[in-house]
């Protein structure tokens, strides 16, 4: 157990306890909230009962942080549902199902793409952090579709730079509520972490530059099917931008989707799928493109909307 105690400085007067802990002890606000709920935080000797409690200058803030097992270990395991679209000496292209993270991260104990590849005997590039070697792009746990992983160091270097220079063509399909106006356009709005929830993002004046291009493919009574091209690759970018337009992805309750419509469509996650990925092959230099079909849950929801 790591016991820490510090006096609250004047600069944090009136701040929430989770904000103060984040600044004083270097933990995330999510981790701070967990410690509060576990009864491991005291303010002036009294146990803190809620993360929203406010602090005053001079108060003694104490926290007991339990030692954690290494959360970023890659566990080799075959993950049901991951499909290999293409495999050669330089890259492997997969179709990632929903519910699978790309690599281990703090707080995630579920299946991962890198764990599946290790379990299936794939040799992956050793470039990058240990838990995400060979990874040059990511898809959210709740987003399915096509993605590429690098097997050679040469491929990693070239594709990492291609993603950084925005020369990779990333195409998504999204079923959003209502009808965007205009039916096609560009959303250029910076994205940052949501001020009220660590697990969410939002359009923020001080956020990172984020650009999304969209075009309506089908317009139905309750929803529209969009083709989306990402110029940048921020976390939750499509979900945040569509929610900012008041047209959240169907089923995306985190970003304001209608739960009644989600239930009617049988959705337990956002209707968002990475359908195509195109780039210059790192060995041949030729342009290649890979595609992924809609998984069953998204195909069913779209069929309901069309009917």
Automatic annotation (TrEMBL):
It is an enzyme of class 5 (isomerase). It catalyses: a uridine in RNA = a pseudouridine in RNA. SMART domains: S4 (SM00363). InterPro entries: PsdUridine_synth_cat_dom_sf (IPR020103), PsdUridine_synth_RluA-like_CS (IPR006224), PsdUridine_synth_RluC/D (IPR006225), PsdUridine_synth_RsuA/RluA (IPR006145), RluA_PseudoU_synthase (IPR050188), S4_RNA-bd (IPR002942), S4_RNA-bd_sf (IPR036986). Residues 15-80 form the RNA-binding S4 domain. The keyword Isomerase applies. The keyword RNA-binding applies. CDD domains: PseudoU_synth_RluA_like (cd02869), S4 (cd00165). Keywords: Isomerase, RNA-binding. Its EC number is 5.4.99.-. Belongs to the pseudouridine synthase RluA family. Responsible for synthesis of pseudouridine from uracil. PANTHER family: MITOCHONDRIAL RNA PSEUDOURIDINE SYNTHASE (PTHR21600), RIBOSOMAL LARGE SUBUNIT PSEUDOURIDINE SYNTHASE D (PTHR21600:SF44). This is Pseudouridine synthase. It comes from Nocardioides vastitatis.
